[in-house]
C-alpha cells in the first residue's frame, strides 16, 4: 500500500511538472535566447571577418606594400583571434541564460589565466614579437640577415620561432622573444667595392682608360649591376703597388658575386694588355761553392 502511494505521489509530481505551462514558456524563452545568441555570434563573426579581409586585401599601387604571404598570415591570425573572442563571449552569455553563476567561473578563469601567464610568459613574448616581425615586415623568407650576430638566409618565420641557415649549412633557431638586433642585407641595393693593385711603373691614365672599358663591359654583361660603376681613383700607396678603388651599385646581396666577376674581368684585361700587377717574387741566390764548382766544370 505504501509503495502504491509512493508511485502515485511521484506520478502526480511528474505530471504537475510536465504540465506546468509557465515552466515550458520560460524554458522556450531560454532556448530561443540561446539560439539567438548563437546565430547573432555567427553573424557577427562573419561581418567582422569580412571587414578584416577587406582591410588586408592586397591593393596595387598602395604606399604600404607587404608581401602577400605576410598579409595572409596576419589576416588568418586576426580572424582567429576575433572568432575565438566572440565565441567565448557567446559561451558566457549562454551559461548565464542557463542560470549558471558566472562569478566563480570568471574568478577561476582569471586565476588560471594568471597562472598560465606567469608560467608561459616567454611563450607569450615570443608570439607577440613574432606578430610584430611579420606585421612590420622586418625580414622575409629568403632574405640574407644577421640576427644576434648569426648570419644566414631566412628559412622560416613563425609566430614563435625564426629559423636561418648559414652559407656553410648550419641552421640557427631563434625564439622570437630573444631577437634583439636584426641586420637585413636584402632590403636595399648593396655596393661592390673592388681594390686593384698596379705597379708603380704603370701609367695611371692608361690604367684608368682600361678600367673604364672593363667597367662598361661589366655593366652590359653583369645583370646584377644597377648603376654605372665608378672609378674613385687612387685609394692607397703601398710598398710596391698603387691601389685603385672601383665601386658598383648592385642588387641586394649580390655584391660578392659582382666583385668576383669584375676582378676576373680586370685580371684578364690587364694580362692581355701587359699591365703589371705587383706580387712578391723569391729569387734564389747561388751558393759560392756551387758557383765555383760550376765555373771549374766549364
Automatic annotation (TrEMBL):
Its main location: membrane. Pfam families: MS_channel_1st, MS_channel_2nd. Residues 81-121 form the Mechanosensitive ion channel transmembrane helices 2/3 domain. It is found in: Cell membrane. It comes from the Bacteria. GO terms for cellular component: plasma membrane. Keywords: Cell membrane, Membrane, Transmembrane, Transmembrane helix. GO terms for molecular function: mechanosensitive monoatomic ion channel activity. InterPro entries: LSM_dom_sf, MS_channel_1st, MscS_beta-dom_sf, MscS_channel_2nd, MscS_channel_C_sf, MscS_channel_TM-2, YbiO_bact. Residues 123-186 form the Mechanosensitive ion channel MscS domain. The chain crosses the membrane at residues 30-56, 77-99, 105-124. SUPFAM superfamilies: Mechanosensitive channel protein MscS (YggB), C-terminal domain, Mechanosensitive channel protein MscS (YggB), transmembrane region, Sm-like ribonucleoproteins. It is a multi-pass membrane protein. Belongs to the MscS (TC 1.A.23) family. May play a role in resistance to osmotic downshock. This is Mechanosensitive ion channel protein MscS.
